[in-house]
Design brief:
alpha/beta; eight-stranded mixed β-sheet; Nucleotidyltransferase, domain 5; 2 domains; 19 strands; 543 residues; Rossmann fold; elongated; single chain
Length: 543
């Protein structure tokens, strides 16, 4: 087999399509009858009519057949046509790709000077969608087609100036084009970093167009950017028209089919891909029911400039106490430096602000930590110092002379500055284990409200590895989760109550006792031998 460079391959295809009798050449003249004109006008006005009458697809059993749209697929087409922004949640094997490709075929034929950008998590998948557009186009009668200018592996262009470009989703995809229709297929299965980069660098430009259509479709795949868009669409926040299509809406799907899918996929994948439940891994710190209960809110402010990466959820309140937990990276576009400020004045603790940046240097990061901590009533600050965090902790205390930083000394974390010249906390396996256990308890018992999107997303991929430790799953990050479990570790310390006049252990224990008492029916008679905690004391090892 001879390997042909892609640019040469595309050039050969450009010339070879001219011999394709199923394509109308550029500049060809067709004499339209009155019946043809009537049909052309009907098709231009109604994409569903056009698809049902003229589009043909390849059926797995019957070969090339007319596309007989199911009712839910007609709803999909209608939603694309009537709305500028659509997001669809669909079950596995719903035919969403074929349906959307048919609409794109209609769009480029009956609209002049339109550019459609088809993006998927892999270039091969994007080209498969383009292939379905090309297949539908080739099976049209020549008088219904536009003349073809180019017919390449990754793009096509028609005589009316409309074109379709297929590519893998990336931070540069679509840059330089005036996009009229953007289709993001299986967006939930895109790597988190790529999705973030795309929506940071390209999406704002595309979405700013007054007439640009944006179509997003996917099966669920955990708590990620697709899930964020879906939740915000449900809340009416982001302007997307949202639609969900369940497997039983497919006329050819039966309970027998669903049972077969369950047997093949397993319970977790079945719930995710057939029942369309947003799930994390089976090994996550939080179970799927708890993860599903977490919902994000939009920050009230996101400063730019040197504070880029800061999300403010609550402004500072007079008389409130705050704690900042700090995790540090090296600022090399890998892991992010992250901190979270918690309002600890009462339970449940709430998030006042978060920060996440993978470019910032440790020195600049120390200055931002100190600035934000001062803003929040001189917040207590706990800095993790296992790596370059020690540089941040020392800068904050020694150079910036911030007095609210906590110290680690003689195996005991102090609630304020002490005599140890190395402020911060050097975390250990034990520290993290305690912090993770307490984080799980605090979230499940509503002792801390987690409503930041990145945190929820990272929690959905924060799993127990084979070595027994909880870490980010391969290809994901846990920077903001680190700030969460540091806060939870802090809340479990015996002296933490001195900061807020509230003792987390006693409060949680009291709630557990009350829940058990409420569940007893009839009431149990005690014999006086049970052990109780006296008010104001803490039993060591309760967690």
């Amino acid at each position: 087999m001879i390997n042909i460079p892609e640019n040469i391959y595309n050039l050969l295809q450009t010339f070879s399509f001219r011999g394709n009798k199923n394509l109308r050449p550029k500049g060809s003249v067709i004499e339209y009858s009155a019946e043809m004109l009537t049909e052309y006008i009907k098709c231009k006005q109604d994409p569903i009519y056009f698809i049902k009458k003229y589009i043909k697809i390849i059926h797995v059993d019957r070969g090339v057949v007319p596309f007989e749209l199911f009712p839910y697929q007609e709803k999909m087409i209608r939603s694309y046509h009537e709305n500028r922004k659509c997001i669809s949640l669909l079950f596995r094997q719903a035919g969403k790709t074929t349906t959307t490709a048919a609409y794109i075929t209609w769009f480029i034929i009956f609209n002049d000077e339109k550019t459609c950008l088809v993006l998927a998590n892999k270039a091969a998948l994007a080209r498969e969608i383009l292939h379905r557009v090309k297949s539908g186009f080739e099976n049209l009668p020549l008088w219904m087609q536009q003349g073809v200018i180019s017919w390449n592996k990754g793009s096509i262009e028609l005589e009316n100036g409309s074109r379709v470009i297929a590519a893998a989703t990336s931070s540069g995809a679509g840059r330089g084009y005036s996009i009229s229709l953007l289709y993001l297929d299986e967006f939930a299965h895109l790597d988190a970093g790529v999705a973030d980069d795309f929506f940071t660098s390209v999406y704002p430009t595309i979405s700013s167009g007054k007439d640009t259509k944006i179509i997003i479709s996917s099966t669920p795949n955990g708590f990620n950017l697709f899930q964020k868009f879906w939740v915000e669409a449900e809340k009416g926040i982001n302007g997307f028209y949202h639609q969900r299509f369940d497997w039983w809406e497919h006329p050819e799907r039966s309970q027998e089919w669903a049972d077969e899918q369950r047997a093949v996929l397993g319970e977790l994948k079945y719930n995710q891909e057939i029942l369309m439940t947003f799930l994390g891994s089976s090994r996550t710190l939080l179970n799927n029911e708890t993860l599903a209960r977490l919902t994000h809110v939009l920050p009230i402010s996101e400063p730019s400039g040197h504070l880029k990466g800061l999300k403010i959820y609550k402004n500072v309140e007079h008389g409130h106490s705050y704690v900042m937990t700090v995790d540090t990276s090296r600022g090399r576009h890998l892991d992010s430096s992250a901190f979270t400020v918690f309002d600890i004045s009462k339970y449940p603790h709430t998030i006042a602000c978060t920060y996440r940046n993978n470019e910032i240097s440790p020195l600049m990061y120390a200055q931002i930590c100190e600035k934000v901590a001062k803003e929040y009533n001189m917040a207590y600050m706990l800095v993790e110092i296992n790596d370059v965090g020690s540089q941040v902790a020392e800068t904050i205390f020694m150079d910036l002379e911030y007095e609210g930083e906590m110290f680690w000394t003689k195996g005991e974390q102090l609630g304020k500055s002490g005599g140890n010249p190395y402020p911060g906390i050097r975390t250990t396996v034990k520290t993290k284990r305690i912090g993770c256990a307490n984080l799980k308890d605090m979230i499940e018992n509503n002792q801390v409200i987690v409503n930041d999107f990145v945190m929820i997303s990272e929690l959905s991929t924060f799993i127990q590895k084979d070595n027994g430790k909880y870490e980010a799953d391969d290809g994901f990050h846990d920077d903001t989760v680190t700030t969460l479990w540091l806060h939870s570790w802090l809340c479990a310390q015996s002296w933490f109550g001195d900061l807020t006049d509230t003792n987390f252990r006693l409060k949680l224990h009291a709630e557990h006792i009350r829940e058990m008492e409420d569940s007893l029916m009839p009431p149990t008679i005690m014999d006086g031998t049970e052990e109780y905690l006296d008010e104001g004391t803490v039993r060591e090892g309760w967690f």
